[in-house]
Amino acid sequence: MSITVGPDLSKFEDQDQLDKVIRICLLQLSPSTLPPTVPPSTSHTRLRGLVSMDPFSSKISIISTSSLTLIASVFPSALSTPRLPSLFQGVGKKVRITARFSTVGGESGSADTARDPRGFAIKLRTEEGNWDWVFNNTPIFFIRDPAKFAHFIHTQKRNPQTHLKDPDAFWDYLGQNPESIHQMMILFSDRGTPDGFYQEHGYSGHTFKWCKADGSFVYVQVTCRADGGFKTLDDATATRLSGENPDYGTQQMFEAIEAGNFPSWTVYIQTMTPAQAEQFRYNILDLTKVWPHKEFPLRPIGKMVLNENPQNYFAEIEQVAFSPSHLVPYIEPSADPVLQSRLFSYPDTHRHRLGANYQQLPVNAPIVPVANFQRDGPMAFVNQGNRPNYQCSFQPLTYAGRPGHMDASVNDRERDAKHENFINGAWRYLSVISELDFEQPRELWARVWNDQERETYVKNVSGHFKNVKSAEVKARQLSVWAAVDQGLSDRIADAVGHPHVAPLKCISAAEVLNFRHNIGAGSNQ
C-alpha cells in the first residue's frame, strides 16, 4: 500500500488508521551482510526502482551522487507518476540501519555518563540511497545561528593554555547567547545524564520538508522514543560511574544486544503545513524551540530495533560517516540556517577524516550502485570502469530533475511566493533575543517539572556554576535565569553566594509577532 506524503497526511485523525497507512519497520544493518560496493560486471541491478543498469557499462542511465542522491535520468517518463520514497511504499517495509551513539563534548574514551548532549545518528539503507538521521537526544540545541557554532564548541572544550575544562568560558558563552537557555535547562536536569545510550530518545531537532510531486509539502520533525522509556542517572551516580566504569553506556548496549534484549524505539513524526507555520507563535526555523504536542501531536510511523552488534568496531562504527545532506527523494531540508550549514560541513569533515572516497567504504556505500562523474583519488575501490567521466556528445543525457523537487508546470507560484516571503522574514529575527526565547524554558520550570525536578536542577547547575571566577560572567548568566523566572535566578544566586540580579532586558514578544503579521499582510497586497 502506498501513502501520500504532504498536506494530505494531516487528514488522518484516527491514530489506528494512520498506523495502518504509514507503518514502517527499521532493523539494524549487519555490516557483515553488506553487498559488495559494486556488483559483478555481469549483473544488472535495479537502481532506485526506476531503470536497470550495468554498473560497468558505458551506457549511463542514471547520474547520482556517491550517497545515491538522484541527479539525472535518460528516462524522464519514469518520474511522471507521483510517488513516495520506497521506504513508505507498503505496511511492514523494512530497511537495514547502522546506528552510532556518542557524547558531544568529550574526546574518544571519555566517560559515557558525562553531563553532555548525546549524538543519536542512524543511517537508513533504502533502495533509493542512504538516508541519514543525524539527531541528538534533546529536541532543541544551544544555537540557531550557524556562525556561532565554532565559538560554542570551543567554549565546551579545553582551555588552550591549561588544557582543562574552563567553567568561565562555558558560562561566558551561554550568558552572551541567551537563546541557549532552553537547552541548558534540559542539560542540567537529570536528562543531561541518561542511563546509557539506548534508554534515551532521539530528536531531529531540525525541521525537514516532506514533499509531493506537485511541489506541496509539510514541515516535519522526527522523534524516536525509547520503548523502555527515557531513563536517567542522578548527578552523584553519573559522577561515580565516570570513575568506576567510563564505558558504562557502551558496555550496557553491547551486552543487552548480545543477550537478545534488543533496544527498540518507536518512530514518530510531527507535521505542520506552511499555513500553520506562518501562524505558529515561534519561528519554524528556530532550533531552540519545540513544537508543542497539543498543537502538533506525535504520530507513530514505525519501529527501530537494534538486533546485532558490530563485528569490528573500527570498520563499522569509527568509519561510518553521517550527514544531514544524505536524503532520499521527496525528503528535503528546510531553510533552518543551522541545518543548511550542516549539509556541507559534515561531508567536508568526512573527506578530511576518512579521505575523498569515504563513501566507497562498505559501511558508507549505498546498497545499490552509483553512477556519476567522480573518479580517482586515494582509496578508490570502485572507479566505474570505462564509463566516460564527463558529459560527452556521443552519449548525451536528458535531465529529468530529482524526484520531489517542485514542478513549475503544476506549482502554485502565488502560494509559494507568499511563503518564501515569510521564510525570508523569519531569518531576520534568528539572532535577536526576545521574550519569546524565555517562554518555553519558563513553561519547563514552572509547569512541566515538579518540585523535586526543580530542586535537582538548581543543585546540578549550581554545582557547576559555582566554579566560575568572573563576577561579570556570573551576573550576566543570573540575569538570563531571571528572565525565565526570578525565583529560579535567586535560588541559584543564593547557592553560589552571589547577589540577586534583575532580568535580562530584551525586545518584546509583541514586536516579533507584529513583524511576522506585517510580512503576511504585505505579501497579500
Automatic annotation (TrEMBL):
GO terms for cellular component: mitochondrion; peroxisome. It comes from the Eukaryota. Transmembrane segments: none annotated. Gene3D superfamilies: Catalase core domain. Residues 64-398 form the Catalase core domain. Pfam families: Catalase, Catalase-rel. The keyword Heme applies. GO terms for biological process: hydrogen peroxide catabolic process; response to hydrogen peroxide. Keywords: Heme, Hydrogen peroxide, Iron, Metal-binding, Oxidoreductase, Peroxidase. InterPro entries: Catalase, Catalase_core, Catalase_haem_BS, Catalase_immune_responsive, Catalase_sf. SMART domains: Catalase. GO terms for molecular function: catalase activity; heme binding; metal ion binding. This is Catalase core domain-containing protein. It comes from Agaricus bisporus var. burnettii.
